[in-house]
């Protein structure tokens, strides 16, 4: 699927189309990441600030928007933890 399947905004999960189990697990990891940023920095906005900053930094490293997104540490963690939840 082009673009995104889902997005996490605060505690809301927004899905484009069917909410498949693996996508839900991935997005739930993002909620855990947001909660960590609340405890670490005092607010959920820091998750998004760090996410966007890392994406912009990755744009200087990689040739495509997709690779920049794919290599955001929050996305790597979400993919890995969603896979672990399957087994």
Order of helices and strands: EEHHHH
Helix content: 55-70%
Structural class: mainly alpha
Q: Tell me the span between the first and last alpha carbons.
A: 24 Å
- Largest sheet, if any? 2 strands, antiparallel
Shape: globular
Number of domains: 1
Strand order of the largest sheet: 1-2
User: In what range is the share of β-strand residues?
Assistant: 5-15%
Number of helices: 4
How large, in whole angstroms, is the Cα Rg? 13 Å
* Structure summary, number of beta strands: 2
- How much is the average pLDDT? 91
Low-confidence stretches: none
List the helices and strands and how they pair.
Blueprint: E1 6-9, E2 12-15, H1 21-41, H2 45-61, H3 65-70, H4 73-86
Antiparallel strand pairs: 1-2
């Amino acid at each position: 699927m082009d673009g995104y399947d889902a997005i996490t905004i605060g505690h809301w999960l927004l899905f484009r189309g069917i909410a498949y189990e693996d996508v839900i697990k991935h997005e739930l990891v993002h909620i855990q990441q947001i909660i960590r940023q609340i405890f670490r920095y005092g607010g959920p906005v820091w998750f998004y600030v760090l996410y966007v900053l890392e994406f912009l930094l990755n744009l200087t490293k990689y040739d495509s928007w997709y690779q920049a997104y794919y290599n955001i540490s929050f996305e790597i963690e979400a993919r890995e933890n969603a896979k672990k939840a399957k087994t």
